[in-house]
Design a protein that fits this description.
- This protein has 6 helices and 8 strands.
- The protein is an alpha+beta fold and 184 residues long.
- The protein is globular, with a radius of gyration of 16 Å.
């Protein structure tokens, strides 16, 4: 049975570095046997449908290998199905509908975001910025946007996310990927 997924690429097309043109990314995904491939923005968001029974992790590894083969550098990726993305949006503990997209972010992780990782963070020191943990995701509320956020820097420190791939999307992108992966 066919299933629709989003591929979230980390750290591409930033300041002219690690360039992965979206047309070529679509081609890479098609070469892997996926269909209905679409991209969103230039920051590494792709949606595809596949009949593959591979796990999210297997789909991720295949995509990372194919990107490395095509472009000559490895890109960390996360592949998540539409049901997962919808569940993440639905479980958001912040009033997403009342906020601007730049004020709310989802930081997706390759594995569980255990509370212990974040226990040393003095949450009060960063107010009004806040975060909450979900299923392999951290919800980050930053009233002034991620670019001005001090808490955003703290929750993404290598010592905090050690051993995990982490990639952030603003709430507008979260909602758009849910729409693009919705299956009737």
């Amino acid at each position: 049975m066919a299933k629709t997924y989003a591929a979230l690429l980390r750290g591409i097309n930033v300041s002219g570095h690690r360039k992965v043109p979206m047309a070529e990314l679509r081609s890479v995904l098609e070469d892997l046997g996926h269909r209905d491939v679409r991209t969103y923005l230039q920051s590494g968001n792709a949606v595809f449908t596949t009949d593959s029974t591979a796990s999210d992790a297997e789909l991720t590894t295949a995509l990372e290998d194919a990107i490395e083969q095509r472009f000559g550098f490895r890109v960390d990726c996360l592949v998540r199905d539409g049901a997962y993305l919808a569940a993440v949006a639905e479980a958001c503990p912040f009033p997403a509908a009342e906020l601007e997209g730049k004020q709310l972010h989802a930081i997706y992780y390759s594995g569980p975001a255990e509370p212990e990782r974040f226990a040393a963070i003095d949450r009060e020191a960063y107010l009004p910025e806040e975060f909450a943990l979900g299923d392999r995701v951290l919800y980050l509320y930053v009233p002034e946007g991620l670019g001005r956020s001090k808490l955003g820097d703290v929750v993404t420190r290598p010592s905090v996310v050690k051993g995990l791939v982490a990639t952030a999307r603003n709430w507008n992108t979260v909602v758009k990927l849910v729409e693009m992966t919705h299956e009737d």
